[in-house]
């Protein structure tokens, strides 16, 4: 197999592997469905894959929610921006509900529910956070020739695409081989992420008893 470095070279290798030169019209859809499957399968294994990125999140006084970035897949960490020096633990939405009430305060935890971040207690002012998370790469297409998968896991997207083309391939032996290769790639990435990214597992939610009651404030020494 030649190097897969773009959508076009992926198209070429799919044609070479299947012996079909007429699948280009189906490739964009297969890439999109394959990428969605990868994200879903890795999340089911407690892992994720994609761009590691950061967004600035700012609370609104009296409002517990802030919309998640549209490309969000999975959280990494949340940290206060200066002048504070601390991180905000992730908890369940039920824990946020127990922390909330008719009062507002400095937030000490957050949860993810639906398409929103929920802060608890309800923020009493505008606080800035750096929200580190995994973002889903832009979908591959003729107009978007490369993304995280092409750069970092070309074998994974290659076999994901081949599994999506099973209706066109119509060869049970080949389809089974593509699926086995895909599952092997998924497991390798999930195992590597657990070992190197998190030291053995994904981020864990904090219990209410472990949440910091106060935060460090950075001040200029004189």
Brief overview, please?
The protein is an alpha+beta fold. It has helices spanning 7-18, 24-44, 93-99, 148-152, 154-164, 166-169, 172-196, and strands spanning 51-58, 65-67, 72-80, 109-113, 116-120, 128-135. It folds into two domains: 7-47 and 137-196, no CATH class; 52-134, no CATH class.
Q: Taking strands numbered 1, 2, ... along the chain, how are they ordered across the largest sheet?
A: 1-6-3
Considering DSSP H and I runs of 4 or more, what fraction of the residues is helical? 25-40%
The N- to C-terminal Cα distance equals 63 Å
What is the count of distinct domains? Answer: 2
Q: What can be said about the biggest beta sheet?
A: 3 strands, antiparallel
- Shape, principal axes of CA atoms: elongated
């Amino acid at each position: 197999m030649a190097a897969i470095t773009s959508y076009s070279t992926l198209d070429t290798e799919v044609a070479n592997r299947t012996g079909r030169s007429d699948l280009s019209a189906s490739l964009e859809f297969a890439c999109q469905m394959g990428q969605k499957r990868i994200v879903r399968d890795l999340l089911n294994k407690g892992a994720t894959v994609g761009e590691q990125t950061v967004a600035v999140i700012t609370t609104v006084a009296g409002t517990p929610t802030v919309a998640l970035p549209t490309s969000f897949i999975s959280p990494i960490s949340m940290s206060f921006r200066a002048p504070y020096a601390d991180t905000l633990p992730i908890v369940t939405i039920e824990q946020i509900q127990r922390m909330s009430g008719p009062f507002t305060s400095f937030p000490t935890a957050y949860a993810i529910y639906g398409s929103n971040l929920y802060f608890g207690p309800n923020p009493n002012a505008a606080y800035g956070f750096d929200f580190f998370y995994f973002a889903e790469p832009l979908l591959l297409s003729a107009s978007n020739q490369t993304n995280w998968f092409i750069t970092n896991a070309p074998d994974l997207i290659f076999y994901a695409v081949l599994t999506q083309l099973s209706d066109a391939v119509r060869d049970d032996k080949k389809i089974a081989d593509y699926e086995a290769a895909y599952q092997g790639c998924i497991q390798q990435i999930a195992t590597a992420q657990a070992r190197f990214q998190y030291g053995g597992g994904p981020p864990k939610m904090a219990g209410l008893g472990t949440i910091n009651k106060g935060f460090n404030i950075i001040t200029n020494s004189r």
